[in-house]
Structure formats: C-alpha cells, structure tokens
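Why do we bother with a discrete structure alphabet at all? Because it lets us treat a fold like text: something you can write down, compare, and reason about line by line. To make this less abstract, here is a complete entry for Aminomuconate-semialdehyde/2-hydroxymuconate-6-semialdehyde dehydrogenase. Read it the way you would read a sentence in a foreign language you are learning: slowly, and without expecting to understand everything at once.
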Amino acid sequence: MKAEVVADGKVKAFDCRHFINGQFLPSKSGKTFKNINPATEEVIGIVCEGGKEEIDLAVAAARRALNGPWKRMSTDQRIAVLRRIGDLILERKDELARLESLDTGKPYSLSSALDIPRAAYNFHFFADYLRSVGTEAYQMDEVAINYSVRRPVGVIGLINPWNLPLLLLTWKLAPCLAAGNTAVIKPAELTPLTATVLAEICKEAGVPDGVVNVVHGFGPDSAGSALTEHPDVDAITFTGETTTGKVIMAAAAKSLKKLSYELGGKNPNIIFADANLDEAIETTLKSSFMNQGEVCLCGSRIYVERPIYEQFLQKFVAKTKELVVGDPFDPKTNVGALISEEHYERVMSYIESAKEEGGQILTGGKRPDGLNQGYYLEPTIIVGVNRNCRIVREEVFGPVVTVMPFDEEEEVIAQANDTHYGLSATVWTNDLRRAHRVAARIEAGIVWVNTWFLRDLRTPFGGMKQSGIGREGGMHSFEFYSELTNICIKL
Ligand SMILES: O=C(O)C(=O)/C=C/C=C/O
C-alpha cells in the first residue's frame, strides 16, 4: 500500500481493501464506497465495504492465530515485533502524516507533529511496558500461597474514530498485541488510509498472519454491527460518540463481551483570575480549536472568573481571528477542514441553535471567505449562553466554544459538573491549594492544571458518567487486554 507521493509533497490516496489472514482482499460482495478528501470534496479513492462475510473470515483467522506462532512467541520476541512496528511507523512518518491529513482534513503540521509520532510512541511505550508487567501473590500464613497468572482475553474487536485515526488505533492495538491477543479492526469509514498502511507495517514487522485483521465498512448493517454481534469476539474496545457506544453495548450484550469505552466529552476549561492569562490563552487556543475542535478532550465550555472576563475575551477573540483556516498542506494553516459534509452541517446547526438561544457570535460562525470548496468553518466563540442551552450541554465536536463568566469557586464547580459527560477538564490558577481542591471535585477522568493534552501514557486515561467505561494507559490497558487466574496452593 505504498502511497505515491505526487506534486508538492501531497500523496495520492490508494484504494483500500480488507486485510484478512495476512492478505489484502476485496469484499466477496464486490461492494465499495467512495473516500472523499474533506479539504477539496474530491473523491480520492474507493474502499471495499465489508460485512458479515468478511468479519466471519477475519474472526476465524484471529481465533486460529491465537494458537499459532503468536502464542509460541516469547515475551522478548513479542517486544521486538512491537518495537519494529513503532520503528516502521517512524520510517514512513511523512507518508503517513500526509495520508492522515488527506483523509481527515487536519493540518499536515499537526499530523506530522502529533498523530504519527504518537502512533509510533504508542507501540514503543507498550513494548517497553510489557517487560515490567507482573501479577500478584499473597501468603496465607503457612496455610497457603496465592499467585495470579495472566493470559490474553482472546479475539478483540477494535472500533476506531475518524478524528485521530492512527493515534487512536495504535493506542488500542499496541497493548492489545502486547498482551498476546489477536485483533479485528474496523476503521472509521471516513478514514481508511492509515489503518490500511498499518496492516502492511504489522506484516512487515513480523506479526503472524491472522493476528491483525482490518475490515472496512460502516456501523449499522455492515462490518461494525457484524463485529459487535459476532459470538466469537471476546471483547470490544471503542472510541467514539456516546450514542454509538450505547448501540455497541446492546449488540455486545448478547455474548457478554468485555467492553472498554472512551466516549464523548463536553469538557470545562476553568480560568481563575490569578491565572497567567497569556499562557492560559495560548493553550486555550489549542484546547478549543486544535484538529478543528474534533478532539474528545477539547475544552468547549470556557468559564472565566469575572474580574478578568472582559480582558480574556478581548485577547482570546483577537488571537482566534489570527488563526489561519485553509489547505491542510499549507504550512501556515492552523485549522483545516471538518471531516465531512454531514459533520459540517451538524456543527453549523449547533451554531444556529446557539443564536436562537440568545447567543452572540464574537468571531467565526461561518465558512471563511474565499474557501467555497471543502468543509471549512471559522473558529467560533459564542457568549451570552447558559447551562440550559444546547450549545453548552451537547458535544459539538467542532471549532466552537462558549465563554461564560463566574464569580465563586462553588458556582463554577457546580456548572462544570452539570453535564452527563465526565471525560476531561482544565483548571487555570496559580493558587496551589485551589488547584488541588478544585481538580479533586471535578467529575472527570482527567484534569489538567495549567496545561492541556499533556500525556504520560502510564496514567489512567478515560471518562466517567457517559464519557466512557474503564481506563486505558499503562497497567490499565493490560487489565483490559488480559485475564487473571488466581491460583491457591495449600502448603
Ligand atoms: O492521548 C490519548 O491517549 C488519547 O487517547 C486521545 C484521545 C483523543 C480523543 O479525541
């Protein structure tokens, strides 16, 4: 699947076939769908649409592979394969970054700085981590000794989102393989390219046939539903929208699959008057608009303590107006194109609803002048809304934030927690005790203080309430991707 680098560093997309049992192959049905470049609205290739037949083939291959050479590999051999995958991702970093930008509309400056390096690091991190994974033992006086042994869960279904395609696929696949499982991957239908290259990289790195499988397609009545319903899939790990998470859970219930979920968020960004304002604004530009705001961790609800509210708005709006929206391959671009026409319309509908609810648009809210092709939307700041407005309650997943003033710590904590989500939050203050006090009271899986999206992969990562089930990262990933047997020996 070598992507062909064409004029001015752009790459030409390729047609995507499934990867099953070590072979690239089309759907038996012959069904395909178009792959669209969101920055130009052009068709850049076709993708084979998999269904029950392809999922059955992939699951059978994965089941067989559990007891093949993969099982007999020593830990050191598995570590070497995982490290090699990370190395090969880095060797093809530029090609992968261009493909990711072509598929998603995100700036190449972002995919080359974040998405692809983190994809490689996900493999290097879990390869190294595997060396230190242990279990536990307990001595019952001189009566008995208990110790646990760890084994892979089995065949894992990985269902991945379109916002950080390779970063999030490798975030799941690396620990899945490190723990000795086999995988059936269903990439998001909107972003098939880098998952297809990853399959090729896994084969080249020495992953035995059948251990990693990729089946393209949609959710309902397609590869996605076939995977979540398949009785021989032991677990499902999913990152995506909460609504989709509920559908998957219902399908997985029939065979009681183990579930790991990282779902939506409506994350508060709380800025106290004693914060370093310039630093808070510089990071808030990222936590608001990075990746076109298409990040589950984006701080889309900004709460500013009243004494600095006007000053914050004046500076934040001015800086936001300086952001360059446009061609993902232009080095000057900060904000690229939204992922699809459907998503673009959805985000625009939230901006319309905010206006109907009395919101004022301080900047953005429309397609940039001169960009009539591509799903481009200006970074948007909305004020004059409150906790009862849809724009404040529902995940927009676009370059749209609301800014609201607050007076008391108790009040802003209550507002921050007034949501059925609970993924992440950001707190800006230089008051040490307040930082710890407020962070501990926010109902979220991750709280950043005076920073955002700073990631130590050993930490528990995931959401509470309707933002997820379970945690990923370090030992938390191994807990999901392995089963423990406690053995009690009478002395
Ligand atoms: O940083 C991570 O490990 C991660 O999972 C990021 C998720 C972003 C989702 O939109």
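What the structure line is telling us, in plain words: The pocket of 6UN is lined by residues 163-164, 168, 171, 295-297, 455, 461 (CB under 6 Å). Residues 268-449 form a domain with the Aldehyde Dehydrogenase; Chain A, domain 2 fold (CATH 3.40.309.10).
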